[in-house]
Specification:
The chain is 33% helix and 6% strand. Strand 5 and strand 6 form a beta hairpin. The chain has 339 residues and is mostly helical.
Length: 339
């Protein structure tokens, strides 16, 4: 999600178009882009409200990269100066020493295009942004950072399944991850109806696929599941009402609701989700489609912890690996953000 010159009040009044990542340098094992993988050198900047950033939060936790890659959590309510660190003492990130993520972007390039978005990885040694390539960051965490993975880390992007994973992720991205935004920020009836219809058509196809298999590709959790989960977990809380994707709720689709609960109850997923941040961000920042900035009281979140029975389909969540350990101190989701 981007900030600064996006013009939050303009959402819903102009055609929506997802910006490409302006900074796409990669952090690799061999350092071929000039930024080698190195424990402690980089800081991942995220918002728990943002589905694109949440992918990186989940991947980092599943892979056990907490000691190698520190994490900064931005306030869910950004202003015209971009994502801000008002959750930290004195309103500054304690590692980077900056008040706004835009400062790291400006150190990399002044007057850059594309706004200020999360997830972002900043080089701690010089304070410069390295990458905001939300499509690539998690794939590199799964592959290029493997030497720093915890013992028992799952293979989230197994090589024999990559073609199938890529194909599924492409459909999920176009029709679901990005589709809810096209519906929510549509500025005409026809545009909205096309986008909304596409979202639900793809969700129905995914439900059919998941009716007989526990995970999207293979018998373990992969990157494809992470990318679908971050949209599903926000569906009833914000996309159903705020983005008008309301043909049915997630809780009304037996397969997808059970699948989403299965992942939510898997260590590394639900323990990273902050519903308070999610709701306040969408309803208070997107003033173009919610000018009152009123945050709804619902929906009831208690169902996320109810039995899902997906284990009957088999599958091994972490393959030959193990679940991640407890959430690190300082990275816990506050009580008001939990179901």
């Amino acid at each position: 999600m981007a900030g600064r010159d996006d013009g939050n009040s303009a959402y819903g009044h102009k055609a929506f178009k997802r910006s490409k990542s302006h900074f796409a340098d990669r952090i690799t094992a061999d350092g071929r882009d000039g930024r080698p993988v190195e424990a402690g050198r980089y800081r991942l900047v995220v918002s728990r409200a943002c589905p694109w950033a949440s992918r990186a939060v989940i991947s980092r936790r599943l892979l056990g990269l907490e000691d190698a890659l520190s994490m900064a959590i931005a306030d869910p309510i950004q202003d015209d100066r971009s994502w801000r660190f008002t959750l930290d003492p004195d309103g500054r990130d304690p590692v980077l020493g900056i008040r706004f993520l835009a400062e790291a972007y400006d150190r990399r390039e002044q007057d850059h295009a594309g706004g200020v978005s999360v997830p972002a990885i900043v080089d701690v040694t010089d304070g410069e942004l390295v990458t905001n390539d939300y499509q690539r960051i998690t794939l590199d965490l799964a592959t290029e950072w493997s030497a720093l993975h915890r013992d028992g880390a799952p293979d989230l992007y197994p090589e024999p399944l990559r073609d199938e994973i890529d194909a599924v992720m492409a459909e999920v991205y176009e029709d679901v991850n990005n589709g809810v935004y096209r519906a929510g920020f549509a500025n005409g009836q026809d545009e909205y109806e096309r986008a909304c219809a596409t979202v639900f058509r793809r969700l129905e196809l995914l439900a059919f696929r998941l009716a007989w298999r526990r995970y999207l590709v293979g018998d373990t959790i992969t990157e494809a599941d992470i990318r679908l989960f971050t949209t599903l977990v926000r569906f009833d809380a914000v996309y159903h009402g705020h983005f008008k994707c309301n043909r049915w709720k997630l809780t009304e689709n037996d397969v997808l609701w059970a699948y989403a609960r299965d992942l939510f109850q898997t260590p590394g997923f639900g323990d990273t989700v902050d519903f308070d941040h999610i709701k306040r961000h969408y309803y208070q920042v997107h003033t173009g489609i919610n000018p009152t900035r009123i945050v709804p009281l619902g929906p009831d979140l208690s169902g996320w912890l109810s039995p899902h029975h997906r284990e009957r389909l088999g599958g091994r969540p972490f393959g030959d690996g193990t679940p991640p350990g407890p959430v690190r101190p300082g990275e816990e989701v506050p009580p008001r953000g939990r179901p």
